[in-house]
Design a protein that fits this description.
By secondary structure, the protein is an all-alpha fold. The chain has one domain. It is 66% helix and 0% strand. It contains five helices and no strands. Helix 3 packs antiparallel against helix 5 and helix 4 packs across helix 5. The radius of gyration is 16 Å and the shape is flat.
Length: 102
């Protein structure tokens, strides 16, 4: 439950910026916390891949690993294998879908 709190903060971090620079504001990337923000002319599949390299998203992954290890009473390594494995699968499917449909 609390592992996703940083993502919620990041989602609302751009709200104040929206009112200041409305004409150049990108709602999908309000703050430059991922690598795709700095490559606006990249191909869609590359932007999709780079958007997963988000500082706050990696923070959420770390929190999920720690929380999963505690709740499941497993080691950090086992929890990391499960959480990061699912994350990599989601990244792969997302990038493949972006490449296929763009």
């Amino acid at each position: 439950m609390f592992a996703a709190a940083p993502a919620g903060v990041a989602d609302h971090s751009g709200d104040a910026l929206l009112w200041r620079v409305a004409e150049s504001f990108n709602l999908k990337e309000p703050v430059g916390t991922n690598l795709a923000y700095y490559l606006p002319d990249a191909s869609p599949w590359l932007k999709s891949l780079l958007s997963f390299g988000d500082v706050i998203g990696i923070w959420v992954l770390v929190l999920l690993v720690i929380g999963g290890a505690i709740v499941a009473k497993k080691s950090i390594g086992q929890a990391a294998a499960v959480v990061v494995g699912w994350w990599l699968l989601i990244v792969l499917v997302s990038v493949a879908a972006t490449a296929a449909f763009s």
